[in-house]
Amino acid sequence: MRHRIPHRPPRTRIHRPRSVQTFILLLGLGLFAFALTALATPAQAAPAYQEDKPSNDFCLACHQQQDIAKTLGNETLPVTINPTQFGRSVHAQENILCVDCHTDISDYPHPTVRENSIRAYSLASADTCKECHEDKYEKIQDSVHQVAFDAGNQGAPICADCHNPHTQPRLIGRESGELTIAARKLVPETCAECHVDIYNNYRESVHGKALTEEGNVDVPTCVDCHGVHDIHDPTTASFHNSTPGLCAKCHENAEIMDKYGISTNVVNTYVADFHGATVKLFEEQYPDQPTNKAVCTDCHGVHDIAKTGNPATGVAMQENLLTKCQRCHPGATANFPAAWMSHYEPSPEHYPIVYYVNLFYKFFIPTVLGGMTFFVLTDIYRRIVNRAKGRKHA
Ligand code: HEC
Ligand code: HEC
Ligand code: HEC
Ligand code: HEC
Ligand code: HEC
Ligand code: HEC
Ligand code: HEC
Ligand code: HEC
Ligand code: HEC
User: Rounded to whole angstroms, how far apart are CA atoms 155 and 145?
Assistant: First the structure.
């Protein structure tokens, strides 16, 4: 849930009254509406003394200059702010002033800064966003990042590591209410700042290539699989057991998959086979217990998922697949994967023998059972008729 933060007192429009009665009524309604919005608006977001605050121009007069910097311990923090970039940011466009965030600065020279490293300076301003984005603070509380941070890992990201407050573009489209396409394409780069090895794998994967090279937004970015502000530990048993559901979100959706000619039967056939059936049952009964059965990512990989026909890593290549099976079936030999029908339902092209045996049974069983039933029914009928005849003769 996100809430909009009005930064100015709302204007209530009142029509010219036709009579005293309607005037009083409208005035009453207007005051009531005003009181409601005022109650729903965080006090700090609707400053009444806007006019008295130093303007952005005042700050930018100095801060657009190149080569100005602040010395923090033995590090140097550049303090140049590009006015054009700032002007395009969501905050500037929402008329948030420099001093709405930098509440302790109103003039020059500025108050003394005590921190003696750039990181310490950043962390000291970590609560800046709370004023207006309280909901996100609540959300991050039990995320892996916050947990790492609370445990003393100062490298774990705070808001400003993922959102540069001076250049942050709008993320959620005004009309659509959804993440914009431009923002979606930039997500992996946000995470790459720190998870560079994973990003490099992802960029080479079938999903990452489509996003970064073709600008295709049907594929998952980091946050589709992990979440954003509420990222949880992906190495737990419950996360592992839930991966088939994660992939199913898209891979069972014909509207997406038909565009790429990819079968939407992969999840069904996986569940129907022994590995999937056991994992599914297992997940329902013991969501938090580790399973030793294969899930999608055991065969396909995680951040390095390839097109199945990719000669180097694709799982349609028997030798590539064999190495995956061998992790859990150490004795498996070259023809082991062939014993498994993978995702394909038997057809005259794939596994013709299985297909025709199935077909044979499809006709054979109904014919035999139907014949038997017919035989039994006619037999019963005959007996009843015979008995009735016998009674008549007696
Ligand atoms: C007269 C020029 C000038 C004006 C006006 C000015 N600054 Fe600065 N500011 C600087 C310089 C120079 C530094 C670098 C270090 C120092 O000398 O304090 C700086 C540093 C900063 C810093 C980083 C370190 C610190 O001291 O906190 C922030 C944040 C900052 N300014 C914000 C603002 C804001 C917001 C305004 C407008 C209200 C503003 N500045 C107006 C010149 C100015
Ligand atoms: C949405 C809140 C917000 C707005 C608006 C904002 N700042 Fe900042 N600013 C911050 C935060 C938070 C930091 C600390 C950055 C970090 O963690 O690296 C910061 C850091 C700075 C710094 C230190 C250098 C740096 O980039 O880290 C300067 C200088 C600065 N701001 C000036 C300005 C000026 C000038 C404006 C207006 C043109 C402005 N800020 C508008 C939140 C804001
Ligand atoms: C004085 C209030 C205020 C402060 C402080 C503030 N913001 Fe914002 N921020 C806003 C407003 C208003 C919007 C526009 C929200 C909207 O349209 O829903 C916004 C939008 C955003 C967006 C884009 C959201 C979207 O829907 O596209 C991000 C990301 C963001 N802020 C991050 C931050 C971060 C990070 C900080 C702290 C460094 C911060 N903000 C501090 C008021 C503030
Ligand atoms: C690890 C990186 C990361 C951190 C830390 C982070 N964000 Fe975000 N945030 C993102 C990404 C990526 C998106 C866009 C993806 C999405 O919304 O699905 C986003 C979206 C947003 C949005 C707009 C979407 C919405 O749901 O309203 C706001 C506002 C926002 N963040 C504010 C914050 C604030 C405030 C903090 C600190 C409490 C914060 N973020 C911490 C990465 C981060
Ligand atoms: C500023 C650096 C930074 C950024 C940016 C960042 N992370 Fe992290 N991330 C960390 C640190 C530090 C940890 C905790 C230490 C660790 O386990 O590696 C962590 C842990 C994680 C974990 C849990 C790892 C585990 O083994 O339990 C996941 C998942 C994760 N991050 C995903 C993301 C995603 C997704 C993004 C982008 C939206 C992101 N991170 C952005 C620094 C960052
Ligand atoms: C298609 C879904 C998916 C996408 C996209 C994805 N991940 Fe993951 N990620 C997973 C799964 C599943 C695991 C757990 C792997 C395991 O069982 O060890 C994981 C594990 C992780 C871990 C912790 C374990 C490790 O390998 O260090 C981090 C950190 C992480 N992902 C970050 C990212 C980042 C950053 C991105 C984007 C560049 C990303 N992930 C994209 C599904 C995904
Ligand atoms: C957000 C939607 C989405 C999610 C979630 C997702 N995928 Fe995909 N996947 C796609 C799209 C779209 C393609 C086609 C990309 C292309 O070919 O350009 C694709 C392609 C693939 C391919 C390549 C098929 C081929 O052409 O040979 C495999 C394998 C795959 N995904 C496996 C997975 C697995 C395993 C998961 C879960 C860990 C997963 N996907 C999660 C959307 C998704
Ligand atoms: C035991 C290994 C294994 C498991 C588990 C597995 N797959 Fe596959 N998958 C394969 C192999 C092998 C192929 C190559 C095509 C074939 O021969 O069936 C494949 C093909 C695919 C394709 C391409 C289909 C096409 O039409 O080109 C997708 C998408 C896919 N798998 C997704 C998944 C998803 C999603 C899961 C989990 C629900 C999953 N796989 C579980 C081995 C596996
Ligand atoms: C993550 C571990 C894991 C991976 C990877 C894996 N399996 Fe399995 N597999 C198992 C487990 C555990 C069982 C036992 C299932 C049971 O008893 O319910 C099993 C059972 C089987 C069986 C049933 C016969 C038997 O030996 O009990 C076949 C056939 C099989 N796997 C084939 C494959 C093939 C082919 C691959 C590679 C494409 C593969 N497996 C990859 C864990 C795995």
Answer: 9
For residue 202, the number of C-alpha atoms closer than 13 Å in the C-beta half-sphere is 19
Q: Is the CB of 122 under 6 A from ligand 2?
A: yes
328 Cα–ligand 9 center, Å: 7
Cα-to-centroid distance, 109 and ligand 1 (Å): 7
Lowest mean pLDDT among 112-126, 134-148, 328-342, 367-381: 328-342
Atom 25 (ligand 9): residue with closest C-alpha?
Answer: 329
> Which of 328, 342, 343 is the pocket-test mutation for ligand 9 (most atoms within 8 Å of CB)?
328
Chain centroid to CA 190: 14
- Which whole number is the average pLDDT over 23-44? 44
188 in Cβ contact with 212 (< 8 Å): yes
User: Is the pLDDT at 202 greater than 90, yes or no?
Assistant: yes
The candidate with the shortest Cα–Cα distance to 221, out of 254, 253, 187, 255, is: 187
